[in-house]
Amino acid sequence: MAYFRRTGATTFHPTPHVGGAWKTDEQHVAPTLGLLTHLVETDRERRGRDDLAATRLTFDIWGPYPLEEMTTDVRVLRPGRGVELVEAEVACGGRRVVTLRAWLTAVGDTRALAGGAPAPVPGPDAHAAWRPSTDWPGAFVESIDVRRTLAAPGRGTVWVRTGHELVEDEKVGGLARTAGLLDVANGMTVRADPRRVAFPNVDLSAHLHRAPGGGWLGLDTTVTFGDAGAGLTSSVLHDERGAFGVLAQGLVVRGLDA
């Protein structure tokens, strides 16, 4: 019941639970985002420290990739005592498939200054259970537990969690567990039927003002389609304590009936 098995110091093999939504014989990108975040947090050989916290995660998705072994790499682009920029990358099928650039900053006590976060949304128990396989195929979609309230096409609040481990037999922190679910924001409050309209995201960027808990992930989401083939999925990110950040995904929108 894990999404990946480690096969070497820098290699991982996806399990069948990673099967994609746009094509079921490809990987769903969501678990890979969690894996890269996990590596940024835990790669002591290349980073040599664990005293910084991620405040921004930006992923570029280079294209679809098969359910095959992946090779990873982590490097520090900008070292510093209080601020560090780290890049992590996955290659699969002989090419680069996802890149993460993460800004990490020193942790300090700013409780006396805290404030300004968006208001909390009603928790998971206030939303009806929903099977995402109503709209999407794929093993990853089947592996998540979803609660949802829709206000309109492309507008709604979703809570999502998974009982699957990210990496088999490895301790994974709350940030990486959360990052492994972020990509579902684009598919849980759809603006158009994905059987008729494709709207894959080419990137995902999350800005965080505090660390998430790693359990239920709340997504207060708005999906916008422009008039020239582009779109945007925007979400305020919540856990059961309240809001902890914001997310944006740039979309390529195209009809499948043409």
TrEMBL record:
Question: For the Acyl-CoA thioesterase-like N-terminal HotDog domain, which residue ranges apply?
Answer: 21-104
Q: Where is the Acyl-CoA thioesterase-like C-terminal domain?
A: 127-252
A UniProt-annotated Pfam family = 4HBT_3C
Protein name per its UniProtKB record: Thioesterase family protein
Q: Which organism is it from?
A: Isoptericola hypogeus
